[in-house]
Amino acid sequence: MPNCSNPLQCQMAVRVLCTCDCGGANHAKLRLMMDNPETRENAELQLIELKSYQTKLKKAKRIERRKRRAEARKASKSIT
Fold first, then answer.
1. Per-residue pLDDT tens for 1-10?
2. CA–CA separation, 47 vs 30, rounded Å?
3. d(Cα 79, Cα 56) in Å, to the nearest integer?
4. Fewest CB atoms within 10 A around its CB: which of 25, 39, 59, 78?
5. Burial of 61 (0-12, 13-18, 19+ CB in 10 A)
6. pLDDT tens for residues 14-39?
């Protein structure tokens, strides 16, 4: 299963077009499970796991962004 750049939004999507990194492989899978009464319980558990994963992913991206900005500031200060 390819990784999504925004897994929660992709797997809960309503629209048809997928614009994330998975290229549509994960698109709307969880939403379809939520709509089906037989698989809803399992989908709710997966949703909880996906939300915690999304939180960790956001935190990691934020840290990476801050590091890049700090390096850019150091590089611009050393030039001047």
1. 467 778 888 8
2. 8
3. 35
4. 78
5. exposed
6. 888 888 888 888 888 888 898 999 99
